[in-house]
């Protein structure tokens, strides 16, 4: 297969709606990918799409590690296997509520395929972010507590770690979603995982990522072995609450 000759056409959609909707509705997590290399210019387009994503406070402190060297990928493969096996032995042991057992079995088979062929992955993208230390002044802290009130200020003290994690994630994950959309539009298979966080220190050491830099995903990218198709999701009527819960 000549994967570099031409780019695949964008998915067809209803002429009355933007093509983006057709892209999103067929953006399956594609775990079975070919070993064929992905041109650097296409990977750069994925990172460009990610950079276009919104970043909280427009701080733009993201960095992206792009792995294409087969030797580095082979070094990462045992780490990936340990993380996947740990997941499948615990959280991933059972199908989520509402998911058909047969469908879940197919998903697990795809996860295991990706695990067993990880060293052949043509590209892996690791989004990173370093959130700056907050700058606090006494007057600002006083105003903060005054505006929130004593009860809310106390609650914020209790959830500060969660708040900080969400603030950091909100700066990087919009860009990650842009990256995934761009991959789908270019006909590339990609899927987002955070399993590497189980061994994040080992991953960072293998890739030379600075200690104070947090990693937010491990995204394998390549040309798909299967076909894109409609995603299976809960209908809008089941998840929306209008005006109040």
TrEMBL record:
Residues 28-223 form the Nitroreductase domain. InterPro entries: Nitroreductase (IPR029479), Nitroreductase-like (IPR000415), Nitroreductase/BluB (IPR050627). Pfam families: Nitroreductase. This is Nitroreductase family protein. It comes from Streptomyces hirsutus.
